Amino acid sequence: MSGAPTFRPPPAVGWMVAAAPEPAMSGPDGDLGGPAEAGAEGGNGGFGEAGQSGAPEECHTDPTWEERHPIMCFALGLPYVPHQEHSPAGFRLWADIQSGASFLGPEVMALGLLWVGLVLLGALQTQAQDSTPNLIPAPPLLRVPLQPDFQDELFQGKWYVVGLAGNAFNKEKDSQFKMYATTYELNEDNSYNVTSTLLRNQLCDHWIRTFLPSFQPGQFNLGNIERYPGIQSYTVRVVATDYNQVATVFFKKVYKNREFFKITLYGRTKELTQELKENFITFAKSLGLTDDHIIFPIPIDQCIDE
């Protein structure tokens, strides 16, 4: 095809305390819990961000987590009680209070209750700060354009992630997001093996998944979705592409009943014209996003050019 495509805008408290932040499509390309955010597709974009561990069951199953957060586990009403040699004095005090130790006076008991209450309040405040804010609603797929007469053979190959936009991205927090590359390899059944390569902790990381063709050419679903706990649906839709220079791809994921969406601006090279970037911004805003939800990853050479 000749010429770059033009994008036109289409017409119980306890359990919550230790909950980890929602994944932000942060594994590459929408984030399935893959590499978090040193730069995979979805950096913080609701498609898989790494965050502070905090699932309540960890109080039962992870001794190191229990030792680091004994008061938190106890405040959740979970049965774990750490060994005394690892327990802060305050925790031993509260354990004694719960067991009804008679040698403690009412003043001490009241102090213990107050102390644990303050810990619980602090945990709730932390959760409120860390959790994903109210998300801009994901658009219905019918509002998202689809590349006419999609050519799967021409689309395969290596793409650089030049731009990202999504309802879980934050321009300020993700300002140092590094560019990464995604390669689409076409299979005989018209599915793609999709590999994202990124620099993470000074090492090259590779994240692989499968996109299965849907009922419409250019639309795909995540393969082996049962391997990704919490993900209920995951749709990929090629919005527009000229195959040899630029592509815009839409991702939508339902994770634990919350809808995340992301738009990726791909380039066959690391640099695209300002006009193409402006078209990308216009399209992202047509789906309800703002400038604060749009980022352009920093170009790098490590890993993605190998």
TrEMBL record:
It comes from the Eukaryota. CDD domains: lipocalin_2-like. Keywords: Disulfide bond, Glycoprotein, Secreted, Signal, Transport. This is Lipocalin/cytosolic fatty-acid binding domain-containing protein. It comes from Felis catus. Its main location: secreted. Residues 40-51 have a biased composition (Gly residues). Residues 156-297 form the Lipocalin/cytosolic fatty-acid binding domain. Pfam families: Lipocalin. Belongs to the calycin superfamily. Lipocalin family. Residues 21-63 are annotated as: Disordered. It is found in: Secreted.
